Amino acid sequence: MALEHIAESVLPTQFGEFRISVYNAADGKEHVVLSMGDLKGEPPLIRIHSECLTGDALFSLRCDCGAQLEAALEKISDEGRGAVLYLRQEGRGIGLGNKIRAYALQDRGADTVEANHQLGFPADAREYSLAIELLKCLDLCHIKLMTNNPRKFDALKAAGIEVVERVALESGRNPHNAKYLDAKRAKLGHWLTLP
Length: 195
Ligand SMILES: Nc1nc2c(ncn2[C@@H]2O[C@H](COP(=O)(O)OP(=O)(O)OP(=O)(O)O)[C@@H](O)[C@H]2O)c(=O)[nH]1
Ligand SMILES: [Zn+2]
Description:
Layout: E1 4-13, E2 16-24, E3 30-36, E4 45-50, H1 53-57, H2 65-79, E5 82-87, H3 96-107, H4 112-118, H5 129-137, E6 142-146, H6 150-158, E7 162-167, H7 178-188
Parallel strand pairs: 4-5, 4-6, 6-7
Antiparallel strand pairs: 1-2, 2-3, 3-5
Helix pairs in contact: 3-4
This protein binds guanosine-5'-triphosphate and zinc ion (ZN).
Organism: Stenotrophobium rhamnosiphilum
Cofactor: Zn(2+)
Function: Catalyzes the conversion of GTP to 2,5-diamino-6-ribosylamino-4(3H)-pyrimidinone 5'-phosphate (DARP), formate and pyrophosphate.
């Protein structure tokens, strides 16, 4: 997939000053790298974050995405270096409308995996070739990865990215997302501790 770097600027945030870079990809979407400090040398902290409009921007409590994004930016800010790769693969790759359809099915009792299946999608329609290409493009072959998702971890390792450390990112559990987090642990194998 060809990546085109199209713009870059400074982005002051509540977590400190980041650089924002925008890349066009062959999927027709604009993907973002939010970075702080010098990424060369010691493996930096990296978060590969899948877009969640509802959680990242609309304060939804149905998932843990917004809390994870905040925690990742905080950790990067504490270390003074690192990056968030913000990938435009909303709803685990099925898009916003379908994610909300899945929510409606969850309201009627399905869990997050069953709802995707009922809509004719796999449990997780994402793939990480774009993330891998971005990491290689940024010369980031040795990283500390902030994730609880074994599938993401394995995909990077299989592509030759050396994940020298996995940093857990458990935050934002609340009564509205408890079932969702339990399904991620039980059905998708996420490394999440029991409450
Ligand atoms: N289809 C679907 N997608 C969801 C649902 N809840 C959140 N998402 C999407 O799930 C994606 C985040 O994936 P997660 O499985 O929560 O976490 P992850 O990124 O794989 O793993 P971590 O690195 O540990 O955060 C985002 O794209 C969200 O929009 C849901 O109920 N159904
Ligand atoms: Zn979310």
